[in-house]
Structures
1.
Amino acid sequence: MNIYENMGLKKVINASGKMTTLGVSTIDKNVGDYMKEAAMNFVKMDNLIKKSGDILSQYTGGEGSCVTLGSSAGIAISIAACITGKDIAKIEKLPLNEGLKNEVIIQKGHAINFGAPIIQMIRLGGGIPIEVGQSNKVEPFHIEEAINEKTAALIYIKSHHTVQKGMTSIKDMVNIAKEYQIPLIIDAAAEEDLKKYIGLGADLVIYSGGKAIEGPTSGFITGRKDLIECCQLQYKGIGRAMKTGKENIMGLLKAIEIYNQKDMEASIKVQKQRMEWLIKQINTINGLEASVIQDEAGRCIYRAKVKINSDILGVDAYYIIRELENGNPSIYTRNHYANIGIINIDPRPLKDGEEKIIFERLKDIIKNLG
Ligand SMILES: *Cc1c(COP(=O)(O)O)cnc(C)c1O
């Protein structure tokens, strides 16, 4: 029994992804050991924040970096940094923002909910979100038209949650940001490439430590040195309500070191093989049709896609999802396409052998339909 089961909470098999509702990621044992030691010793936090920033920058290519509690905090803090600069009086005044240069331009198709609304995180940092264009079409002129003397930043959200077509590209936003000398922030929370967006010319890029990097609850902002200093200063203001502890900072550093050394191709190959095994098994069940598909946002994730044939089974995907969740252990699948009868199984969070439990459970659920 794990410690959650000891408390009377059900064991979870996560076939869903890096989901905050399931605890995001589980950490490597080495990361855990590192966090334990960090938690048992004191350190001067200002120095740890600066030093950890220097180390993170080696992985990102940014001039500087600032640890955060996560990407949500990263958004609030980077927006606050663009609004206040190094002015402590302004830093202490946030999130009240009257009279400050505080408008933040975001494409309408990027104003998503990732579990909470993006625009709320902008507001938390003292920003006034200015949504431009339409939800399925935003052109550079929509952005340029909205720029004025109150514009503090442009923000671009790189995520599978956003509208994937009809939006203005990062390249065009970089050009606009340079032309008008306004900082461009990219929220790359779940992205795997830690250098790409700095390379493309963003001023600040935000990552979650618990998603691709599989660290503890943490995150960071990386980018332009002057702006990063302004980010770090927010810990004297709104950042205090989102402070990261020493153990999480150290866990993030260990996790990113392991992530950087990881043989991605090999681990993707193993994940793909496990999903190929699973689809072969699932395809022996009458009424289910399985195949391997790549991530819709183009990341190197190969999931098992299971199509529920309602004509044969007499139940829909939502019924199967409910049955999987209601059993013990609870199995959580990736359900963005349940409305069209598709359930996806994500190999990344699965522990050894859990694909076999998923198959057995699916078999039982279908058998019990009679
Ligand atoms: C997950 C996510 C966030 C929030 O990240 P946390 O680390 O959970 O705070 C923000 N933006 C996007 C696009 C995300 O996917």
2.
Amino acid sequence: MLGRRAWAEPWKVKMVEHLRMTTRGERERAIREAGFNTFLLPSELVYIDLLTDSGTSAMSDRQWAGLMMGDEAYAGSMNFYHLEAAVRKFYGYKHLIPTHQGRGAEHILSQLCIGSGQIVPGNMYFTTTKMHQELAGGTFADVIIDAAHDPASEHPFKGNCDLAKIERLIREFGAEKIAYLSLETNVNMAGGQPCSLENIKATCELCHRHGIKVFLDATRAVENAYFIQQREQGCARMSLAEILRAICDCTDGCTMSAKKDALVNIGGFLAVNDDELAERARNMVVVYEGLHTYGGLAGRDMEAMAIGIEESVQLDHMHARIGQVEYLGHKLIDAGVPIVRPIGGHGIFLDAKAFLPHVPREEFPAQALSAALYVDSGVRAMERGAVSAGRDKQTGKHLFPALELVRLTIPRRVYTQAHMDVTAESVISLYEDRQSIVGLRFTYEPKYLRFFQARFEPVRGERVLTN
Ligand SMILES: *Cc1c(COP(=O)(O)O)cnc(C)c1O
């Protein structure tokens, strides 16, 4: 199909960025000073940065050239019209409201469409999405299929919505109590797991039948389209662009973090079909982000995004992107390391509960494992477990989601196969030596999105890795 078997990249390196190598002693000091939170490490002290795939992509020469074409007019920048044309063509929505990044769009959508006391069903929560829903007075309700909460399940579409769960919510609360359904593609917190096109269509059909709107979190919709093409019956001959349109066409609009699929370092958008909702969103974007033709972005950022959107739907690009993730995943599976199966789109998710059975949930095994990984090799990962989940709004107790994960997120077009080898070696050596990893307790806990700035200390001694 691609004319070759390997996933090798359809690009070559034009410029390099040097990385600083550190000693283990330096890293032990750095992680202690960072309160055992990888978010608080200076990136200069990180060797391979797998904290996130958000805004960390390498732009192409065409995108860099696009930056030079920035039209920095306050109103009506040419680059806005280019971006609007790209969003209409590839995502298909009528109205584009640019925002500084994804959460800017989530803020506007939540404030406009959620009434106090309303329910917002979604296929697993995402941190910023849920936060904005709650700040708008809504309550998130998880409607993802049960298999998504089981790291060992090989279900090919673990991002799917469970229609029976949606129907139950409608019966229990009534359709008018449901603000809208928030449909995430390639579900981040489930391990980058896709939804099937069939399920997306059925979910939208069910909601629309009850007069409930569906807004897509399109952040990784193109990665989702790739899995649909690879796995879903009847979709193998469709292009990624065609599948993306098929996904978007059944929904009423989307929020988007362009820092992921769209291959830019900053940017996002809200896109909707409804004229009146678009008007209200434009009224609001001027308060929080900027004029409706720039939404907190420079003209050059919008140009790079327009070009990035077009590059993101190229099959060669996506084959290499997901191929690299799968390469790392298979190395770990072959060594017996417990990871979320099947391998997802944007990273490898270590199952910290299975990795560190001697560390109880109250001692945050995923947080401890990501700190230990940094000490071992300078690879920076991220906790996606109880620390990320926060506390219950009502009881104030820690939430313990079924999944307690460490995310090794792969930036797009940035690292080589040898970097993946180094990462795999470090994880495998930690797995062999897992008894030497010590749990953590909070020394500082912020009120909102606590994982970003929380600080910890080991429950015993001073080190997270005692060998
Ligand atoms: C990153 C992300 C967001 C938030 O976008 P930002 O650009 O970081 O504000 C929303 N939803 C999903 C699924 C994401 O991965």
